[in-house]
């Protein structure tokens, strides 16, 4: 399983970029001038990462079901 994960590490590039952009925007929108809530800040990055990763993997699975062996990269 680890070998397969290493072979598909390139699937993480787009979700990481997406989470950084969306997370930064969410932090700016939700920024408070009181004490920073580090759990909330980390969730601002984690949620878009998981959404982007799910979308990416769903696309790859669907492509493979349709006989297209493209990884979507």
Considering DSSP H and I runs of 4 or more, what fraction of the residues is helical?
Answer: over 70%
What percentage of amino acids are in beta strands? under 5%
Task: State the secondary-structure class.
Answer: mainly alpha
Taken in chain order, the helices and strands follow as: HHH
Shape: elongated
Mean pLDDT: 76
The biggest sheet, with number of strands, parallel, antiparallel or mixed sense and barrel status, is: none
Radius of gyration: 16 Å
Q: How many domains is the backbone divided into?
A: 1
Low-pLDDT sequence parts: none
Determine the number of helices (DSSP H or I, runs of at least 4 residues): 3
Question: Termini separation (Å)?
Answer: 21 Å
List the helices and strands and how they pair.
Blueprint: H1 2-7, H2 13-30, H3 38-65
Q: If you had to describe this structure to a student in words, what would you say it looks like?
A:
By secondary structure, the protein is mainly alpha-helical. It has one domain. Helices cover 71% and strands 0% of the residues. It has three helices and no strands. Helix 2 packs antiparallel against helix 3. The longest helix is centred in the last third of the chain and has 28 residues. It starts with a helix and ends in an 8-residue tail after the last helix.
């Amino acid at each position: 399983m680890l070998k397969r994960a290493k072979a598909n590490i390139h699937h993480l590039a787009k979700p990481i970029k997406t989470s950084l952009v969306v997370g930064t925007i969410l932090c700016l929108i939700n920024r408070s001038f009181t004490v920073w809530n580090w759990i909330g800040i980390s969730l601002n990055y984690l949620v878009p990462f998981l959404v982007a990763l799910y979308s990416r993997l769903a696309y790859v699975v669907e492509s493979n079901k349709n006989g297209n062996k493209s990884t979507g990269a």
